[in-house]
Write a structure and sequence with these properties.
Layout lengths: L3 E5 L4 H12 L3 E8 L19 H13 L3 E5 L1 H17 L6 H20 L4 E3 L4 E5 L5 E5 L16 H5 L1 E2 L7 H10 L21 H9 L7 E4 L5 E5 L22 E6 L4 E5 L5 E12 L9 E6 L7 E9 L2 E11 L6 E6 L2 E8 L1
Parallel strand pairs: 1-2, 1-4, 2-3, 4-7, 8-11
Antiparallel strand pairs: 5-6, 8-9, 10-11, 12-15, 12-17, 13-14, 13-16, 14-15, 16-17
């Protein structure tokens, strides 16, 4: 009897091809589109493929019909609001810059969806992520870089648990993006040339500060001061939710030279400004650790670490300095170490684990 796999179909080409490939491999495939968020004005079908927009269910339905598989729309709006949107807002109010995709993957696209699908009799869930799942020599599961580094999505998957990985298939990770579009074209899928989604799916206009204003209302801190590290006032800022470490554009400070956000101080409603060299550092600490390819960190270890999605990675020595704290010492200084973002540890293209930057 064929194994049953539920594919999270976002209406994009990647998840659509994932469903196609798994059906070709002999699985009993069921498509599920997650209804996540309705706030805001969605972009048009041509402008975006974001997974929170209303048209994605229709695109996924058309693909499912073409493939001859069942398709369902299931609401996860409550889980998404609590785990992703509220988290996003609270982190910005605290002066940190969150990565909502990391928590969405862990707690919504996997934890909530997997549980629902297992209740429906599924053996696996599957997604269209550009990553591969491997079994390490130590017996643990890990995500491995996709065959195409340009589309690799392992950074945002570091938070997945061993139980989640054991029940997950990621068929797209074995292909380059161009190959995926070619497969979709040959299969006659209507989404073959649909643009990729960009930025944060639940903020289609990319105006994070306005979104936070709508969600948090009177709790949003107002204008405050741009200051130097030693407290000299340089000007007035629009509110700390408008800024992140390393930012240069949009400061509107007449300094006669480029300056950058060095730090955000929510306790005093200040944004600290520095020079280009001030936003480089070679040490960071992280917490909320998720161990993946390694079960623990009993002694220091040399890894490659990425401090943001688009970071190429840098050689790093990691050591445990507390029950839930790791010190990361980089061989070369890295730019804009940003509290709230994830740092992810790699070895031989596999994710060993990661945590949230303090």
């Amino acid at each position: 009897m064929a194994k049953k796999v539920v594919v999270g179909m976002s209406g994009g080409v990647d998840s659509s091809v994932a469903a196609y490939l798994l059906k070709q491999q002999g699985y009993e495939v069921v498509g599920v589109t997650m209804q996540l968020w309705q706030e805001g004005v969605p972009g048009s079908r041509e402008e975006s493929g974001a997974c929170c927009e209303p048209h994605v269910a229709e695109d996924a339905r058309q693909v499912a019909a073409k493939l001859g598989i069942p398709h369902h729309v299931i609401s996860f709006e409550q889980e998404f609001k609590e785990k992703v949107v509220d988290y996003f807002v609270e982190e910005y109010l605290a002066g940190r810059t969150p990565n909502p995709c990391v928590v969405c993957n862990r707690y919504v696209k996997w934890e909530a969806m997997l549980q629902r699908c297992l209740e429906l009799g599924a053996d696996y869930i599957a997604t269209g992520h550009y990553a591969r799942i491997v079994r390490m020599e130590n017996g643990r599961y890990a995500v491995r870089n996709s065959v195409t580094a340009r589309k690799d999505q392992t950074y945002a998957l570091y938070g997945l648990t061993q139980e989640q990985l054991a029940r997950t298939l990621m068929p797209v990770g074995a292909y380059a993006k161009e190959q995926i579009r070619q497969i979709a074209t040959e299969a006659g899928l209507v989404v073959a040339h649909k643009p990729d989604s960009q930025e944060i799916c639940f903020i289609p206009d990319h105006d994070y500060a306005a979104f936070i204003d709508r969600q948090a209302g009177c709790r949003v801190p107002g204008r405050g001061n741009f200051v130097t590290e030693d407290g000299k006032i340089l000007g007035e800022h629009l509110g700390i939710t408008h800024y992140t470490v390393g930012q240069r554009k949009g400061l509107h400070l007449a300094m006669g030279r480029p300056v950058f956000v060095k730090k955000v101080r929510p306790e005093t409603n200040e944004v600290v400004i520095g020079e280009a060299e001030d936003v480089f550092g070679d040490v960071l600490y992280c917490h909320q650790i998720n161990y993946m390819g390694m079960a623990d960190l009993p002694k220091p270890r040399q890894v490659t670490a990425k401090i943001r999605y688009a970071h190429a990675g840098e050689k790093c020595r990691i050591e445990k300095v507390g029950e839930d704290r790791i010190k990361c010492s980089f061989a070369k200084s890295v730019r804009a170490v940003t509290p709230g973002q994830a740092v992810v540890f790699y070895e031989d293209d596999c994710v060993l684990g990661g945590g949230i930057i303090l």
